[in-house]
């Protein structure tokens, strides 16, 4: 997604002779530096990308946009609510897991810190400001503040990614990082005093997926893509849809957002810990189901996987713009089955265009700013 390793970056093709370190010194959703003085493929081969991960990113961002488009029109449709719940159970976990996978080589070296700042921190500041101004003037909220500590709408993911990546060396040092991350998520879910600053509830509650991504290796993805796993994924997906249809009227959607503690949702404190584990298990199972069926070959949309940062950051203006201008209130037929199909298709087409190379080049100043002026040429010299 950014110049630093990220879920939005085009992924490298793993060398055949050894497990590679994730290459993400590239633009979204960017290029990486090959390990020095180690056996591996020749330079030409090292520049190749694995189309599988670009396919994952594109399909995941389409699901994100479509699910966001369903929110204003799904009331009254139990089937749509069930579909929404299934998608929400895994679309961000999948993004976060892939982001963790391509953050495995992150350390606090100067080049990677630079990429973290220009590829994550700067886009967060710019788009958090843009969304606040958009709400202020288009959403008729003149009092809307511009606050960098209270992420608006989808910008929470950028600040979360910043925090997760900065802490990567810690997780890479611990003997059992995943149980520790799960314990933190469970404690957060029962801690209402955490508050809304930097959306730390989401940072903590989604943390296990990022840590799991750090622990994954190329052979794990090879295992996920085996034919047996794809076949097992079919009944699992069907069962998830049936379960979601049954529980849709009974479950608060807030559990899926991970933005609040159990007490803030009016539930017993202990239910936060239980739901953290249950949602992690469900999210992981559905993420594996999704990853198992993503095409491994180069497709017509593979190249769009490199532009998912633009699709992610821009589609919110489309969704929120429709809400602020009362579009969904005026055209109530959009809540009908045919309307839901129209909304889904429009959201998918729009985010596809937003991921296109021309849009990426136009927004490079915001998503991949050069900013050489801000950094020393040789930080090691003082």
TrEMBL record:
The keyword Transferase applies. It comes from the Bacteria. One of its GO terms (molecular function) is acyltransferase activity. Residues 1-47 are annotated as: Disordered. The keyword Magnesium does not apply. Residues 51-353 form the Acyltransferase domain. It holds the Pfam family Acyl_transf_3. Keywords: Acyltransferase, Membrane, Transferase, Transmembrane, Transmembrane helix. The chain crosses the membrane at residues 52-70, 82-103, 115-134, 146-164, 229-248, 268-293, 300-318, 338-355. This is Acyltransferase family protein.
């Amino acid at each position: 997604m950014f110049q630093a390793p990220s879920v939005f970056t085009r992924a490298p093709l793993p060398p055949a002779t050894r497990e590679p370190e994730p290459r993400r010194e590239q633009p979204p959703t960017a290029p990486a530096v090959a390990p020095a003085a180690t056996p591996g493929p020749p330079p030409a081969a090292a520049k190749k990308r694995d189309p599988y991960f670009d396919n994952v990113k594109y399909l995941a961002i389409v699901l994100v946009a479509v699910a966001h488009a369903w929110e204003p029109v799904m009331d009254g449709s139990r089937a749509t609510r069930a579909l929404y719940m299934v998608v929400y159970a895994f679309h961000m976990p999948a993004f976060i897991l892939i982001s963790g996978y391509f953050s495995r080589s992150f350390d606090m070296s100067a080049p990677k810190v630079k990429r973290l700042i220009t590829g994550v921190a700067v886009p967060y500041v710019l788009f958090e400001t843009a969304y606040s101004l958009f709400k202020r003037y288009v959403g008729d909220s003149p009092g809307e503040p511009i606050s960098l500590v209270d992420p608006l709408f989808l910008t929470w993911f950028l600040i979360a990614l910043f925090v997760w990546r900065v802490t990567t060396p810690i997780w890479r040092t611990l003997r059992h990082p995943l149980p520790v991350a799960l314990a933190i998520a469970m404690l957060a879910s029962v801690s209402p005093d955490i508050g809304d600053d930097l959306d730390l509830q989401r940072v903590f509650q989604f943390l296990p997926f990022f840590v799991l991504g750090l622990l994954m290796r190329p052979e794990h993805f090879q295992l996920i893509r085996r034919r047996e796993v794809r076949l097992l994924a079919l009944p699992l997906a069907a069962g998830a849809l049936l379960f979601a249809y049954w529980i849709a009227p009974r479950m608060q959607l807030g559990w899926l957002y991970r933005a609040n503690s159990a007490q803030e949702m009016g539930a017993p404190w202990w239910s936060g810990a239980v739901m953290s584990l249950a949602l992690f298990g469900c999210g992981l199972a559905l993420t594996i189901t999704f990853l198992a069926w993503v095409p491994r070959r180069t497709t017509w949309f593979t190249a769009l996987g490199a532009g998912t940062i633009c699709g992610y950051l821009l589609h919110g203006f489309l969704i929120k713009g429709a809400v602020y201008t009362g579009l969904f209130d005026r055209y109530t037929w959009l809540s009908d089955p045919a309307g839901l199909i129209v909304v889904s298709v429009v959201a998918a087409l729009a985010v596809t265009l937003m991921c296109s190379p021309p849009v990426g080049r136009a927004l490079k100043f915001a998503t991949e700013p050069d900013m050489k002026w801000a950094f020393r040429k040789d930080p090691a010299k003082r």
